[in-house]
Amino acid sequence: MRITRPTPSARSITLLGVAAVGLSVTAVTLPGEADAAPRHHQTRPTIVLEHGAFADASSWDGVVQRLERAGYPVVAAANPLRGPASDAAHLRGVVQHIDGPVVLVGHSYGGTVISQAAAGLEDKVKALVYVAAFLPDTGESSLGLTNKFPGSTLGDVIDSVNHTLPDGSRGADVYIEQDKFHKQFAADVPAGQARLMAAGQRPIAAAALEEKSTGAAWKTIPSWSLVTTEDLNIPVAAQRFMSHRAHARTTEIDASHAVSVSHPGAVTRIVEKAAGTVR
Question: So where does this one cross the membrane (predicted)?
Fold first, then answer.
């Protein structure tokens, strides 16, 4: 059997005949025409969330839920909390394993980590978001920046646990005393939830807070900062100083240090603003 395709004029007559009998035609695609049509693929950046000291990846749960509902792929990375160099190397491995552009978000000490991890990855990391976080310059430490301004009461509530490191040297992990955790870290979080956070807090190596940064990616990558004005861990003056120095697009909120838990919607909105600039 021989099949003859209609000529353009016959095809037009056929379509007119269909319309004449009252049927609607929304689209007609002939074989081969689909391949010639333009294709538009909108790829959203992956949001990588890095928690800080005395927290874990679950501190991002409310933010993750909102970002995923908005259609973003999300990774809440586990931060080893051993030191900026090793923690940044760990995070770089996570970032380099992801296809496509990335927005890095760091809370507290996690800001120190993303600043170092993203250095030299400008083709991959398109935006940095600091949430009640450190934005250190090269040669600065988290502890040094905290002590540069008044307002932190963290040193008064720290409990230190000494241990032997794999190389045989002695080291210390630091925690926030559980009965002081709510007021110090998460004053605007319900008491029951704060108790769970206190029990499950991840310690940070004391040496990590004194280790100096070797990279400051905010110098080359667009940055956003959420400053928490009721913060008892990182003084608000320190947050403002670092955000201003980095020329970060800055928002202030009356919140505790645990802002990702108490105000996940506010955090999500800033992350979405940063992600919206990625093309």
Answer: none
